[in-house]
Amino acid sequence: MEGREWNGANYEEEKSNFLEKLSSPEATVQASKAAKGKWDKKKRLVQKLKLLEVKKLKSLE
């Protein structure tokens, strides 16, 4: 940010003002939400499989 003084005290306010000016196309926003949902679904599946594996190992002991 050339030509501007840095004021760390109001960083969050400056950040929110800057981010408000930025915008993404609607298709990008939708794709991002879909990708996040897909990632969450995979993460839950992996967690469930790990729990099942632990239960299986405990039952074999």
Task: Describe the fold and architecture.
It contains 2 helices and no strands. The chain is mainly alpha-helical. It has one domain (9-60). The model has no long low-confidence stretch (mean pLDDT 86).
In short:
By secondary structure, this protein is mainly α. It is about 75% helix and about 0% strand.
Strand content: under 5%
Order of helices and strands: HH
Taken from the alpha-carbon principal axes, the silhouette is elongated
- Low-pLDDT runs: none
Strand count, sense and barrel status of the largest sheet are: none
Number of helices: 2
N- and C-termini, Cα separation: 62 Å
Q: Helical content, roughly?
A: over 70%
Mean pLDDT value: 86
Protein structure class: mainly alpha
How much is the radius of gyration in Å? Answer: 22 Å
Estimate nothing, just give the exact number of structural domains: 1
Which helices and strands, and how do they pair?
Layout lengths: L10 H11 L4 H35 L1
Index terms:
61 residues; mainly alpha; elongated; 2 helices; 0% strand
